[in-house]
């Protein structure tokens, strides 16, 4: 039998303590590993869920674009505005009228929508420089026409790095506008003068 203070017993005690410390360290490491695994799993799940949402959104957008094309519209926002006007129950036209205007060459402009009370409504996702220049020229040449815009997002910048937004441009040049849908109060306004199917350029062509 080993004596209590024998070197062999002392060595055995130290060895057992060492093993216990290592086991404790392993337990801490394992717990930390489990916590990290849980965090990583949450990140992976969130990423997969976001990818799924993006895929569903892209699929929905694609289907809406196809639907718009099938129904004869150029964009989803045009389709949505047409549905708004149909729900209101009043007659309207879509790309039926022509308005000649003077540029470096003589051009004609086809409004997107003309409501029953003769408001011209342009549906705009992107508001390009050529669009802005055209509408300023038309406003100058035909000040009696009531042209308004419905944007997908009027807070978009005019171009990359610009300070001004679509909304600020409209305020500056006195165009009425709205986002996403046609306000019902526009459709309840008094009727403007009738817009002919074709408006010839007023003035002398050079």
What does this structure look like?
This protein is α/β, with parallel strands linked by helices. The chain contains 5 helices and 8 strands, in the order H-H-E-E-E-E-E-H-E-H-E-H-E. A 5-stranded mixed beta sheet has the order 1-4-5-6-7. The protein has a 3-stranded mixed beta sheet with strand order 3-2-8, with helices on one face. The longest helix has 64 residues, at 7-70. The chain is rod-shaped and about 120 Å long. It starts with 6 loop residues before the first helix and ends in a 7-residue tail after the last strand.
Share in β-strands: 5-15%
**Ends: how far apart?**
124 Å
Radius of gyration: 34 Å
Give unreliable regions as ranges: none
Helix content: 40-55%
Q: What is the helix/strand order?
A: HHEEEEEHEHEHE
Strand order of the largest sheet: 1-4-5-6-7
Distinct helical segment count:
5
Q: What would you call the structural class?
A: alpha/beta
Set down the secondary structure blueprint.
Elements: H1 7-70, H2 76-88, E1 93-94, E2 98-102, E3 106-109, E4 113-114, E5 120-124, H3 129-141, E6 147-151, H4 166-172, E7 176-179, H5 184-187, E8 198-199
Key features of this structure:
single chain, 206 residues, alpha/beta, 5-stranded mixed sheet, 3-stranded mixed sheet, 5 helices, 49% helix, rod-shaped
